[in-house]
Automatic annotation (TrEMBL):
<protein>
    <submittedName>
        <fullName>PIG-L family deacetylase</fullName>
    </submittedName>
</protein>
<dbReference type="InterPro" id="IPR024078">
    <property type="entry name" value="LmbE-like_dom_sf"/>
</dbReference>
<dbReference type="InterPro" id="IPR003737">
    <property type="entry name" value="GlcNAc_PI_deacetylase-related"/>
</dbReference>
<keyword id="KW-0862">Zinc</keyword>
<dbReference type="Pfam" id="PF02585">
    <property type="entry name" value="PIG-L"/>
</dbReference>
């Protein structure tokens, strides 16, 4: 098996740990080169004032460095494009990452893919997961950059929609758990299970994934309450293994030796 280079493109620090942390740790442990690329520094993200301090950008950059170390990543590249923030129903400001022309949003990533002679790129599904405009732009910009750089393999990090939607509907019956989440938003979120092409068993790498999640302490809560990261970290180990022990990807082209080397099994 030849050594591969995987570039993993994300919107904000902490995204890499949530959807791809176990896979990145697995790929790095197998001896492949893992490069993290971030569109924004997450300066407009939700965070509690107590946890993030006065400079959220600086806090999140430091957290990212610790998380990347926990996952075994060889390089971290930050493009420092303006974070769009996210409020349902609110149109992001002009000039933020999600509002940039795709040519501008993808330019720096194209350069990284060419520098690294990347074998594969991870992005998000077209829905941007739960619909964050920066995540949707990661999909568009990532696809464009891979085309320009000639990167042969593009993997969309995602989750199976159906079980997630069931969980969100059930969670509405638990006061305080997901009070701010609108269940109907998940009816078009992420990816239908039948479209998922790769299901990666990351249970042997969950310690690394947990350390990466823990590194992003500012994202565990906001001034309006706890967030997904806090919920994950509060799970007992057996439940955490069940919830976080698999990561999911969609490859729109037929699986190749690249995906076999990096991911191993398919769905």
């Amino acid at each position: 098996m030849r050594t591969r280079t995987l570039v993993s493109f994300h919107a904000h620090p902490d995204d890499e740990a949530l959807l791809t942390g176990g896979t990145l740790a697995r790929v790095a442990a197998m001896g492949h080169r893992v490069v993290l690329a971030f569109a924004t520094d997450g300066e407009a993200g939700l965070a509690s004032t107590a946890a993030s301090g006065s400079d959220l950008r600086q806090t999140r950059v430091k957290e990212l460095e610790r998380a990347a170390g926990a996952l075994g990543c060889a390089r971290v590249v930050r493009f420092a494009l303006p974070d769009s923030g996210w409020i349902p129903g609110h149109v992001p400001d002009e000039g933020t990452f999600s509002r940039l022309p795709v040519e501008d949003a993808s330019a720096a990533l194209t350069q990284v893919l060419e520098e690294e002679q990347a074998d594969a790129l991870t992005i998000y599904d077209p829905a941007g997961g739960y619909g964050h405009p920066d995540h949707q732009q990661v999909h568009r910009a990532g696809m464009h950059a891979a085309f320009l750089a000639g990167t042969p393999c593009v993997l969309e990090a995602t989750l199976p929609r159906q079980p997630l939607l069931r969980f969100v509907r059930l969670a509405r019956w638990v006061p305080g758990l997901l009070d701010s989440v609108e269940a109907q938003r998940f009816e078009t979120a992420f990816t239908p299970r039948e479209e998922i092409t790769h299901q990666v068993d990351v249970r042997p790498y969950l310690k690394a994934k947990r350390r990466a999640l823990q590194a992003h302490a500012s994202q565990a809560s906001s001034d309006s309450g706890p967030r997904t990261l806090r919920l994950l970290l509060s799970l007992p180990t057996p439940v955490f293994q069940r919830v976080a022990g698999k990561e999911y990807f969609v490859e729109r082209t037929p699986p190749s030796s690249i995906t076999h080397d990096l991911l191993g099994t398919t769905a």
